[in-house]
Amino acid sequence: MGERRTFKVGQKESVTVTITDEMVKAFADLSGDRNPVHVDDEFAAKTRFGKRIAHGMILGGLLSRVAGMHLPGPGTIIISQDIRYKGPCYIGDTVTAEISIIHVRADKPIIKVASRVTNQNGEELINGGAILYYDPVT
Prior knowledge:
Blueprint: E1 12-18, H1 21-31, H2 36-39, H3 41-45, H4 56-69, E2 77-85, E3 94-104, E4 110-118, E5 124-133
Antiparallel strand pairs: 1-3, 2-5, 3-4, 4-5
């Protein structure tokens, strides 16, 4: 094993992505979740959303991307995750997934983070948190 990386409370990282029709279709194929609110324009138009919405777990996956690729980074696994959906994500929305460190364990390579996803209008679509294990490989 390599040296242990150092993290501090308050560190943040984010990614910004535009949610596309292709992403939604690929996720529907991958997960088998073909709920018509995600994949059928005519059906979705009759719902409270008025049009198709992206699967919530696409946004959850973006939080995983931030953790696994940026903070703490490669080798990170999610031990537990709390996701609260606050609003819909529409196809074409540009979303920012952000995590920020709120606690670092001194005895183990484990950190606790707050997480949120917002859209291009600053509306919060997800909030929550996670406990992450990071492999101390440098």
